[in-house]
Design goal:
Layout (H helix, E strand, L loop, with lengths): L1 H16 L6 E7 L6 E7 L4 E12 L13 E4 L12 E5 L4 E17 L3 E27 L4 E6 L4 E21 L4 E12 L4 E2 L4 E7 L2
Antiparallel strand pairs: 1-2, 1-12, 2-3, 3-6, 4-8, 5-7, 6-7, 7-8, 7-9, 9-10, 10-11, 10-12
C-alpha cells in the first residue's frame, strides 16, 4: 500500500509540474499583413503562427423594378437661349453597386522575451486582399420635340461593368501579446509593410484578440 501511495504521489507530481500554459487560440485580428477577420493563433515557447481570413459581400446595385436612374422627362426651353445638345450621350451611374471583399493572411512568430503575462516577439507575414465590384450605368440623350420643347430619356438598357483588384502585402516587425484574463490575450504589432507595387508602409499597427482554449 505504501508503495502504491508513493507511485501515485510521484505521478501526481509529474503531472502537475508540467507546463500548462495555453498555446492555441481563436479570435479576431486586423492588419495589413495579418489579414482582417476570424483568426487562429498558436504561440508556444519557441515559435508560433497565425492564420486570418475575412469575407464580405454586398448587393446594392440597380434593379429594373426600382428607380435607380432618371426616368426621363419633357421640358420647355427658350429657343433664343440654351438649346439641348442632341448629339451628346450622357451616362448616369447607379449609386449602388454589387461586390465582394475578402482577404487571407499568414504570420510567423519568433518569441524574443517572456514575462509573467506578456510575450515580446518578432513577426514576419504575408497577406492578400481582393475586391470585386459590379457597377451599373445607363445612357441618356436629349431630343428636340418642337421649337420650345425637349425631352431627356434613356437610349440604352442598364449596362454592367465588372472590375476586380488584388493587393499583396508582406512585412516584418515586432509585437507584444498580453494576457488580460486567464484565457484571453490581446496583441499589438508594428510591422514594416511592403506592397506588391513597391510601396513601403510603417507605423500602421495591427491588433488581435484571442481566446486560448488549449
Amino acid at each position: 500500500m505504501k508503495n502504491i501511495l508513493i507511485v501515485l504521489m510521484s505521478l501526481s507530481t509529474i503531472l502537475f509540474s508540467q507546463d500548462t500554459k495555453l498555446t492555441k487560440g481563436l479570435g479576431f485580428a486586423a492588419g495589413m499583413i495579418s489579414g482582417s477577420g476570424f483568426s487562429y493563433r498558436q504561440l508556444d515557447e519557441t515559435r508560433g503562427f497565425q492564420i486570418t481570413f475575412g469575407l464580405m459581400s454586398f448587393n446594392d446595385g440597380a434593379d429594373e423594378d426600382e428607380t435607380w436612374f432618371s426616368e426621363g422627362y419633357t421640358q420647355s426651353y427658350n429657343p433664343g437661349g440654351w438649346t439641348p445638345d442632341t448629339s451628346r450621350i450622357y451616362t448616369e451611374r447607379d449609386w449602388g453597386y454589387d461586390g465582394s471583399w475578402g482577404n487571407v493572411g499568414f504570420m510567423y512568430y519568433l518569441p524574443l522575451h517572456r514575462a509573467k503575462k506578456s510575450t515580446f516577439y518578432g513577426i514576419t507575414g504575408v497577406s492578400t486582399y481582393f475586391t470585386t465590384e459590379t457597377e451599373y450605368s445607363k445612357d441618356y440623350k436629349y431630343s428636340i420635340l418642337s421649337d420650345s420643347t425637349y425631352s431627356y430619356g434613356p437610349v440604352s438598357d442598364i449596362k454592367q461593368t465588372d472590375t476586380s483588384t488584388r493587393d499583396i502585402f508582406f512585412g516584418i516587425g515586432l509585437g507584444i501579446e498580453y494576457e488580460i484574463l486567464e484565457n484571453i490575450r490581446i496583441s499589438v504589432d508594428l510591422p514594416m509593410t511592403f506592397s506588391r507595387s513597391g510601396n513601403i508602409t510603417m507605423f500602421i499597427p495591427q491588433a488581435g484578440v484571442h481566446y486560448y482554449f488549449r
